[in-house]
Specification:
single chain, 446 residues, alpha/beta, UDP-N-acetylmuramoyl-L-alanine:D-glutamate ligase, Protein-Tyrosine Phosphatase, Chain A, seven-stranded mixed sheet
């Protein structure tokens, strides 16, 4: 088939393009800007657009269907030409659902922990030799791509609640109609499309309504908001979960047995429990799961270890929304006990840079001994948002030892200062700190 992807440079979109191309389809794409690693990966596969930008000349009747990414706009000339020619146009979650219509669908949803929980399931299923398709939001060790679409009878989908496309303005999770679902927790995010917490919560209520009564719904029962939604939904086949227990040696204790694990953080023991319940629903025993998960080291940028020795460890995490920053900071501090902690947060998303939203970060870094907030002024300008004052950010986060940086080189020098030579460093961002250097091993104090 001939398939064209509009906004092909996105993380999920370019992986879909790569997988379709590898399956033998004739794949083309377009975008107004493509960054690494998408750029090199598309180039190496021979499907990098000849030029950046949009052109209706790319759209002809020979195209079987178009996949439309969220980065494009509703007046995109290629989209308008496809609609004019009556070529089918799908958002990528629509396409994933159409591909998986005859498969068993497992969907991992929630405001945080989706990628790690999904990655744990993929890791264990692969080790057990299970044939499955998948869509996950990060590059995983042992997997060539973030997407696999084949004739496997099972698909594992990381279910994002953000909108599907500029003309399919519903959350991605509303498309998937799972047979097994996980909701990891609910905390307000994406205020640019869900301006109130009530509107945001409604998206999960609707998600539950898309499930038939036979769907197994696994949910984190310590989240009061989520627990209330589940109880009010009257879903008949729901399974609550909480954190797995660990002993002083950081080994999981289950049914009187000890199991070593490679991940860190109490919140990841919660994610592990959710993943274990999914695998149990697929016919695996808890012991089989816990043996298979022991060498799972995490997904890219999900508490990814960058450096460390006996004095300190440096980790990078995708945490950016207030609930994610709070959970990750608390879990990281608790995991390492008495070790001092410098927590560094980049404000990068529309919500996190919004003056009305920033006060939601109050006390999220309280577990850290020192804290930094970084943002790139160019990002503010690109998003056409007003300037931020350092004092406003400091007051909003309400941390006594917090400083604000807008220059990545100065931030890097600060982190590597002698005063933090015996501190753990936790870097949290959905961006890249404006491409800040991430080599911490050369520090003479490390």
């Amino acid at each position: 088939m001939r398939i064209h992807l509009i906004a092909v440079g996105g993380a999920a979109m370019h992986n879909i393009a790569l997988d379709l191309n590898a399956a033998g389809h004739q794949v083309t794409g377009s975008d107004d800007e493509i960054y690494e690693p998408s750029l090199t990966r598309l180039k190496n596969s021979g499907i990098l657009p000849e030029f950046t930008g949009w052109s209706e000349d790319r759209i002809t009747k020979s195209i079987d269907f178009v996949i439309l990414g969220m980065h494009a706009k509703a007046d995109n000339p290629e989209l308008l030409k496809a609609l004019e020619l009556k070529i089918p146009v799908y958002s990528y979650p629509e396409f994933i659902y159409r591909h998986s219509i005859n498969k068993k669908r497992i969907v991992i949803a929630g405001s945080h922990g989706k990628t790690t929980t999904t990655a744990m399931i993929l890791h264990v299923l692969k080790k057990k030799g299970v044939d499955f398709d998948y869509l996950v939001g990060a590059q995983l060790e042992g997997f060539d791509r973030m997407v696999k679409l084949s004739d496997a009878p099972l698909i594992i989908i990381e279910g994002d609640e953000y909108l599907s496309s500029p003309i399919d303005r519903v959350p991605k999770i509303h498309h998937y109609k799972p047979h097994i679902a996980v909701i990891t927790g609910i905390a307000w995010d994406h205020m640019n499309v869900f301006p109130t917490f009530d509107i945001y919560k409604d998206q999960f209520r609707i998600f539950i309504k898309t499930m038939d009564e036979e769907c197994i719904l696994i949910y984190y029962n310590q989240d009061k908001v989520l627990k209330g939604i589940i109880q009010n939904s009257n879903h008949k086949n729901s399974i609550p979960y909480s954190n797995l227990e660990v002993n002083g040696d950081k080994r999981v204790i289950f049914n009187g047995n000890e199991f070593p694990v490679s991940i860190i953080g109490i919140h990841n023991l919660r994610n592990m429990n959710a993943a274990m319940l999914v695998c149990k629903s697929l016919g695996m025993t808890e012991n089989e799961f816990l043996v298979a998960i022991k060498d799972f080291a995490g997904a890219n940028k999900r508490l990814q270890k960058l450096a460390g020795d006996k004095n300190r460890a440096v980790y990078l995490d995708f945490a950016h929304a207030p609930s994610k920053v709070l959970a990750t900071t608390n879990a990281f501090k608790e995991w390492f006990g008495n070790r001092k902690l410098l927590a560094v947060v980049e404000l990068h998303t529309f919500s996190s840079l919004n003056k009305d939203f920033i006060p939601n970060y109050k006390s999220t870094l309280s577990a850290a001994d020192s804290a930094v907030v970084f943002y790139n002024e160019h990002t503010l300008q690109m998003k056409k948002m007003p300037e931020l004052e350092d004092k406003f950010i400091q007051d909003s986060f309400d941390h006594p030892n917090l400083v604000v940086f807008k220059d990545e080189k100065m931030l890097y020098e600060y982190i590597n200062g002698k005063q933090f030579s015996d501190y753990n460093i936790l870097l949290m961002t959905s961006g890249n700190f404006n491409k800040m250097e991430m080599n911490f091993n050369h520090n003479p104090e490390l």
